[in-house]
Design brief:
single chain; mainly beta; Jelly Rolls; 10-stranded antiparallel beta sheet; 9-stranded antiparallel beta sheet; 1 helix; globular
């Protein structure tokens, strides 16, 4: 069961609905979140939908559908980041000239223009911590015993590999020898069509476009006038309006970050905050399910964000990440939210321990608020396993 500690019952409809259900979910269920924060559900069977407004929804969440298998062979799978913030996990199938062919989970084919691509990092070959070039493009080349950074200009793609011009001359680097490719953006992100939505995918990807239709068979997402993807419902985790009337706090850049203790933690460890990931870089996991959106931190932590004063409310939940469940000590923290310069928190969680169900926030009033601070404090003597998650913090106008 979801914890009801220190939360007034009228505010529970939205946050609790987007927390995981206990037991096995019904097959093909759709959770419908309204702008007011109420929540209803229906079966995907018989669904015929062309916009979220038909259901009065700002967000839809899919539950109980079988996720499709990853696409392609393991050595071809990559994290493909796009200009503008979208990303996909896909099997790279080659390309021709300025076009790159990839395959998403479920066998969904997608063609990307070179101007859309921000980075390609292959799961099997790209080590953590790779950096972009100070300017221009960079290819990380797999060499015997290590990697070489090759800086230059991406010229295009072929079935055999990446065509890249550098001090080595213009040559094709075979796909099997490419660990990563970083492309310097030369164009503005593509303009989103009217009625745009953000689709969070079950494998951690994210795509934006217009909802063409949604039925029990799957979701049709129009990326632009030429490209429409047919996504099986099992590939979709959540669909949210991308019209500016709602936004996830995790999309904003913090104006202040304070982590750890000024004098150091005594053991030389550092826990930088993570966007849409836990503090250790794994998918946000709480209450037995994966969360697409949120902020991962380690206590003690303070993140501040500037707001424009036009948001109406904030919704969400908090928990200690499920990654601590194998530890003997599972952590204990307290979450607080401060608004503007008010010295007392607008909301405080009380003690939250690892292994407990996520705790829903009340719907916090934000009218006129220009600054919000998210604070996590140690609650007991040890800071071990204090991996705190701010889950699905949704700003609503």
């Amino acid at each position: 069961m979801v914890s009801l500690r220190s939360v007034a019952l009228p505010s529970l409809a939205l946050p609790l609905a987007f927390l995981p259900l206990v037991g096995r979910p019904e097959s093909g269920k759709l959770w419908i979140e309204s702008r007011e924060g109420t929540l209803t559900s229906r079966s995907l069977e018989g669904l015929e939908l062309r916009s979220l407004s038909e259901l009065g929804a700002v967000a839809l969440r899919v539950e109980g559908c079988e996720e499709p298998d990853p696409a392609g062979a393991a050595e071809r799978r990559a994290r493909v980041s796009l200009v503008g913030g979208d990303r996909v996990r896909a099997a790279v199938g080659g390309g021709e000239g300025d076009s790159l062919s990839v395959e998403l989970a479920g066998g969904v084919a997608l063609t990307l223009d070179v101007g859309e691509i921000f980075a390609i990092e292959f799961d099997a070959r790209a080590p953590a911590g790779l950096e972009r070039a100070p300017s221009g493009d960079r290819l990380v080349w797999v060499r015997p015993g290590g990697f070489d950074k090759v800086d230059g200009t991406l010229e295009g793609f072929s079935a055999e590999g990446v065509v890249f011009d550098s001090v080595l001359g213009s040559r094709t680097f075979p796909w099997s020898e490419v660990a990563a490719l970083f492309v310097e953006p030369l164009e503005e992100p593509r303009a989103l069509p009217a009625g745009a939505v953000a689709v969070d995918l079950a494998d951690g990807g994210r795509l934006s476009g217009a909802l063409a239709s949604w039925s029990a068979a799957g979701l049709s997402l129009a990326l632009d006038a030429q490209r429409t993807l047919e996504l099986p419902s099992g590939a979709v985790r959540e669909v949210t309006l991308a019209d500016g009337s709602v936004a996830f706090l995790s999309l904003l850049e913090p104006t202040l970050v304070r982590e750890g203790w000024a004098e150091g933690d005594g053991v030389g460890m550092n826990w930088p905050w993570q966007r849409d990931l836990s503090v250790v870089g794994t998918p946000l996991s709480a209450g037995g399910r994966i969360w697409s959106r949120g902020l991962g931190v380690h206590a003690p932590s303070r993140l501040e964000f500037a707001l424009d004063g036009g948001w109406k409310s904030l919704r969400g939940a908090v928990a200690i990440d499920d990654s601590v469940r194998l530890f003997a000590y599972k952590g204990s923290v307290e979450f607080s939210i401060y608004l503007d310069e008010t010295p007392e928190p607008a909301w405080r969680s009380g003690r939250v321990r690892g292994g407990e169900a996520p705790l829903a926030l009340p719907a916090l009033e934000l009218r006129g608020v220009k600054r919000i601070a998210l604070v996590v404090d140690m609650d007991e003597r040890s800071f071990v396993a204090d991996r705190a998650d701010w889950l699905r913090l949704l700003l609503v106008r």
